[in-house]
Structure formats: structure tokens, C-alpha cells
């Protein structure tokens, strides 16, 4: 049966059979007919085609159930039934395709050569029935067990867990997603066949060559449609939508009147050009009076400089404007100058900004420059090189002026980056030597797995250290921590200045997502789990990639200290790399209390 590909019907047209030409091996139908009965297919051409879209290969069903069950194993973050249903459906389709190919290969190269194959109709019917029933039962049992895992993971992160009955909806949604994707594939398959028939009929090309040409034609058309039309159209639409968002002013935010802020009446960077995130950054934060009250001593007015994407026509003009703002505000006369490459939308972590201002009692200048108004995940997929170039331009411009000042008269120069902002920040340096020669310290939080320098440090980590908690050259310059407690464990170990610190959660999908997850088990999934990851999480080909991809959608939607939500741990990071003289553990605890009060009064981070 594997030898058959296309047969001719009474009209002479080629129609798909139950053999290898179906879904790569469109095998016998699922156990829907009684034993010893011959299946009756719909006679109308459209009905026959529609029927072909829902026929399933029973070997494919078994593998689909296997991949679906794998997808129900725990991932980095708790998932509700909706996300799990989407991921389960995608992975079931991948498993179905793998099973169809394996089934076709076995039938063609193994079973076709044994005398007892094919089995009698009754035996085949029972074999299919048992396979399908077992697949359904296994899937239901895994759904129940998966709900238990999800509750364990939620408890680990102090989040609300799911219910078993609610999680059963995952199975229904996964079936719908899988059916849709398989039908889409079969529509494309039938299109390939139609194109092949036209090539064979019009150009007299032999059928094998026509089939290959038909496949190439459809692939080219599909790639052109996706890359040339859909992706570019979506990118243009995203630019339009998020461009409108960028022009809005956040609720409750007003133009600052302080000359130390960009967007103020004295500023060279006008308020209406700063963008949504820029307006939020310059208008919020603790003022000098609040800092004085919090710290019990007279504070300076913190400087916040921000240049938006609309503040000047070109990147270089925006950099020049940013430098002029720094000089106007007196930023180079402060104790600490912090360069902050933003995320895709121009966002700056408000907790990180307020933490360093609290530590220095306002004697700080923070500077950021927007390079896009697209969300980080779109910027990451569409133009990640733009982030690195923007970070390099931002830092080089500040460093050029800073390095020209007398050493005893210039401020400490620090860099902070979070998420895609770390990728922009790393883009400013050639390597570790460049960082050490140009800065007084670097704090990078939640770095994406593709970061160039991060990847180098992690890959070259000391033997015996793990990917989740790597040790690079005994931690003499670069250190990695999962939580503030890790810093305290390293207090008695030498750490050369300037300090370079990465904070990364074992449960942060931004840190661990990589296309390599498709076919390669990463070290972090073969090593002992970090403190907020379940040991039950395992690596499966294809499946783990889609699990972690789904986790990205809720990366920051978990409590502080987990996922991509770093909360007040940035304060500990600042204390490790940029503590002012005389800073004590009591000062740090007091600052944390103030930060938590501010976060509570201002609402969740944007």
C-alpha cells in the first residue's frame, strides 16, 4: 500500500489514495468503520476533497498524542488552559507529521517485504481502535497530571494555581488547533498536486519532475506571501499601531516643570517628542523633597535626560541632542552618571531608576535614548542589530564627553540594561576589556539568550559551574546571580573593579529561549534545576521550544523574583556594583522599604 501514490478515478483525474502520497503517508482512516466493511467515500468531488481534509493516519495519531502529552509537562512558568491549548495543538501537529513519516517509511521499507503484511481487515480495524483509544486515554490522564504540575509551579512562585476541571479545556482547544493546522497543510498539499497536474498537462513534463516543480512553485509562492506580504504588512501595521501608542501621554502624567528633566519648559528635548515611555520616565520618580524625607538628609534634584524617536530626524542628531541635554542639566557634575539603553518601546525600569537615585540621595544623572517604539519581541525578531547600534551610539556619545573631563572632576560612569536593553548595552563594547576600560560598573538584568557577551561568558564558564549559575574566571570581574542571596554568599570572595553583574532567574524565559531548543537539549535542562524551576521539567525535541515560546507571553506576569519580573533585586544589583561610600546593609534595607512603598503607591511597573 505504500507503493501507491495517485490513482485515476473514472474521469481520468488523479485523486489521493490511502497510501504514501496522502499526508506523506495518508494511511488508513481512524477506526471509524466496523470490521470487514469497505469504506464508502463521498462521490461528489468537493465532498471527497473535504473528506480528505479530516482523514487521519493512525500512526500519526499515536505520535500526535505522544507529543501532546510531552507538551503537558511543566515549563518555566505556570500556564493557563488557553496557552497550554495552543501549545498542545501545535506540538500535536508536529508529532502527527513525525508519525506519518515514520509510518510511511516502515510500511514502504519494512512491512512491504514481509509476507504477513497487510494484516486482515478485522485485525487492522482492532489495531487502529486500540491505538486511538490508548492515545485518547493517555492524553486525558496527562491533562489531569499536568494540572497538578501547574499548581505546584504556581505555588513555587506564590501565584494562583489552576483547577483540574478547568484545565481539561486544554484538550478541546488543542484538538481544534491541531485540526485547523492539519487541514491547512492538506490544502497546501492538494495545491501542490494541482500545480503538478497543470505542469504535466501543459508542458508535458514527466510526472515525477512535475511533482517536484509543483512543490517548488508552491513553496516559492508561500515564502513570497509570508515574507514579502504578510510579515512586511504586519511589521508596517505594528509600526502604525505602536506609533500611535507612542504619541499618547500616559494616564496621570503631566509635563515636568523641573529644569533637571527633559521635556520641561527649559529642555531642548520637547515634551511632545519624548514618546509614551519617555514621558513616563521623565515625569515620575522621587523628587528632592521626597528623597530628603526618605533618607533623612538634604537631597539633590535627580537629573533624568531622555530623547525620543521624534525628538530629532536622525539617530546622530538625537545623540547630539541628548549630549546637549546632559550638558544643560549639569549631568557631568553629579556623583553618578548612568547610561540606560532602553527596551524596544523605549521603556526604562522605574524601580531600577529610583533605586540608584535613592542610594545617591539624588546626586545622579540618568540618560536614555529611544530607538524604536515597537515592543521588544518585535524588535528582537525584526531588527535586533538596530538595538546594538543604538546602544553603541548612546554610550559612545556619553563616553566621548565624559572621557574628555579631568578624571578627578568627572562622575562615576555606570551602565544599566534590562531585557533587550542588555543587548543594546552589550553592543556598545567589543569585549570585557572594553567594559573595564570605559565604565565604573555594569548591571544587566534578564539578558536574552542570544546576547553576544553573555553567551561568551556562559559558554566559557568555569568547569563544574552550571549554565543557570555560571562562574566566569572565579568571578573575579563578571558575576551571575539568580537572587540577592547569591551575592551574600560571595561577599568574602575577591571581585575586581569595575564590577560586571548579570541577574538572571532560572525561570525567566527571556534568558533561556533559543531556536536551538527545537533539536538540542540545553545544559540548563540537563543540570540540577534552579530554585524556582520544577525538576519535572524535561527537554523534548520541538515541544520544549514551543513551551518556552509560550512562556514569553507571560514572562513578566508573575510575582517579584520569578520569570522576567526582577522587582527590588535591582537594588541589590546596584549596591553590588555602585554602592556609594559608607553604604551599609541597614541603608540597603531602608532603601528597599522605601522602594516597595513607592511601587505600591505608583502601581505595578509598566
Automatic annotation (TrEMBL):
- A Pfam family recorded for this sequence: Abhydrolase_9
Q: Does the keyword Transferase apply?
A: no
Q: List compositional bias (Basic and acidic residues) regions by residue number.
A: 1-13
**Keyword set, alphabetical order:** Hydrolase, Membrane, Transmembrane, Transmembrane helix
Q: Which InterPro entries match?
A: Alpha/beta-hydrolase_catalytic, Alpha/beta-hydrolase_fam, Alpha/beta-hydrolase_N_dom
Write one Gene Ontology MF term: hydrolase activity
Annotated segments matching region Disordered: 1-23
Q: Looking at the keywords, is Phosphoprotein present?
A: no
Per the database record, which ranges form the Alpha/beta-hydrolase catalytic domain?
A: 303-589
Q: Where is the Alpha/beta-hydrolase N-terminal domain?
A: 72-285
What is this protein's name?
Answer: Alpha/beta hydrolase
Q: Which organism is it from?
A: Speluncibacter jeojiensis
